[in-house]
Predict the structure.
Amino acid sequence: MKIDTVSYSSLKDFEKCAHYYKIGYVDHIKLFDSTIETIFGKLIHKCCQNILKAGQEKNGMEYFEKAWDKFSRLYKKYISTKQADYLKDSGLNILENVKSSIEKSFGKIKYEVFSTEEKIEMMALENHTQRIKGFIDIVFKTEANEYEISDFKTCNSIYLWKKYLNKETERQLVLYKNYFSRKHDIKLKDIIISFILLEKNPKSKNPVQIVQVTSGKKKIGNHLSYLNNRLTILDNINFFPKNRLNCSMYNGCVLDGTVFCKKQNHFS
């Protein structure tokens, strides 16, 4: 068995449960079911990108409102009106504030959107054959030829998200910085990374906040060492054990009770 491509998401799934990883990335069986939250997240990220590229808040808000209303009508049998209306109001609140929040973050520094959904695909490490693949949500370029790689994160509470920010959450951006530097031949010192937090609370007065993450050479080296370790494991793995805790963690598992992971096999 040979695994040719890895991504941040696949590595995260491997950490969660090796058996779960095998079903999705070795057997290529689709596991993920869309929810109202994930659909909202994808739509709001796209609208934020469009607003920041074009600078037209009104058009972005109108597009979101029409798309969300259409989605809510089509799936009214499966979602509650209360939840749909709450997320609609949250989305409009986010979109109304995203441009001004980014401008406030840059202050007097002039900037432009360098790219959105920029594809990263290249050899992960010199001593491994796998390629790493991913998409950067948005990259800003300043007048001083400095770059800021940002990842949108929707959350219920910005306060709680920041409180529980950890190295696993940071890993995606740290790795993106390394590969973006290689792709464009840009010095690491000229790249910063940040999360753009989007709070799903229609009453929030500050629903968009930017959290910058430190990413010096030592931290990048630590995350590349982690990557090297995981690729070494994947190079030699023949058995994908089930994580006993995963069945009840992470809001449950989509494999639970299916033919891919029957309850009687939880501890196998």
In short: The longest strand covers residues 111-123. The helical segments are 8-16, 18-26, 36-54, 57-74, 81-106, 158-163, 167-184, 217-236.
